[in-house]
Amino acid sequence: MSNTVTRGLVLREVNYKEADKILTLLTPEGKVTAKARGVRRKGSRLAAACQLLTYAEFTLFEYRDHYTVNEADSLEQFWGVKGDVELVALGSYFAEACETVAGEGVPQPEQLSLILNCLYALDKLHKPQEQVRAAFELKTACLAGYEPLLDACAVCGREPARPAFHLKEGVLHCAACREEVGEGISLPLTPGALAAMRHVVYGEQKRLLSFRLDPISMARFCDLCEAFLASQLERGFRTLDFYKQLKMM
């Protein structure tokens, strides 16, 4: 039996019994599932910190590989996100994606930093939603072990004049080298979209969103990042579907 103090983001909250919650937290040490007792009672000192998309410092009591939240102090609530239904849906998608790729007890400092930076970009910097979403998707794929090869054409080794990206193989190729890459879907890229991908994959994470694109290149970039993450994880996300429905209203 021991107490552990850590900082983490609430990725999911599930009501349990009359007044408890089961929380999924993303911490630097990995994904953690913890019970917050009595958190739904009026006046609970844990309530503010035990909400979806809240970053907080948690004191966790561990007993037989089960965790209980003893103390929780909110560090960042991202009120600008929580006050907008579209941004809540987008943040929930980020959380679901993190929960999918993160492992219990597997250190996740970079993934935690990524989602916090993206929430901050939406909350305080008011960055375009689609740019933040695409950069998050591509960087999440990289951190999950699916970093694409973007230096040059995977077949001929040259800089592609008409670049395209193979979703399954995760490689860049020339239009003329398409048949050599293998079966599967390839999406065409503009030079701007390719530059943005290279910036996200190879650049510093603190400058993740420091780029601008024309509307066509941004659309190509966003479509490809979403498709690449879904292809590598071999699954869709209900939270992303809900976010898209809201955008269509």
Provide a descriptive summary of the structure in words.
The protein is of the alpha+beta class and 249 residues long. Helices cover 39% and strands 24% of the residues. The protein is built from 8 helices and 8 strands. The chain has helices spanning 79-82, 85-101, 109-123, 129-143, 178-181, 191-202, 215-233, 238-248, and strands at 2-16, 20-27, 30-36, 55-63, 66-76, 163-166, 171-174, 186-188. The strands form 2 sheets. Strands 1-2-3-5-4 form a 5-stranded mixed beta barrel. A 3-stranded antiparallel sheet has the order 7-6-8, with no helix packed on it. Strand 4 (55-63) and strand 5 (66-76) form a beta hairpin. Helix 2 packs antiparallel against helix 8 (238-248) and helix 4 (129-143) packs parallel to helix 7. The longest helix is centred in the last third of the chain and has 19 residues, at 215-233. It is elongated and about 65 Å long. The protein starts with a strand and ends with a helix. The model has no long low-confidence stretch (mean pLDDT 96).
Question: Reading side by side through the largest sheet, how are the strands ordered?
Answer: 1-2-3-5-4
Q: H/E series, N to C?
A: EEEEEHHHHEEHEHHH
Given as residue ranges, the uncertain stretches (5+ residues, pLDDT < 50) are none
Distance between the termini: 51 Å
Helix content: 25-40%
3D shape: elongated
Using DSSP, what is the number of strands?
8
Rg, please?
A: 20 Å
Number of helices: 8
Strand content: 15-25%
What's the main sheet like? 5 strands, mixed, barrel
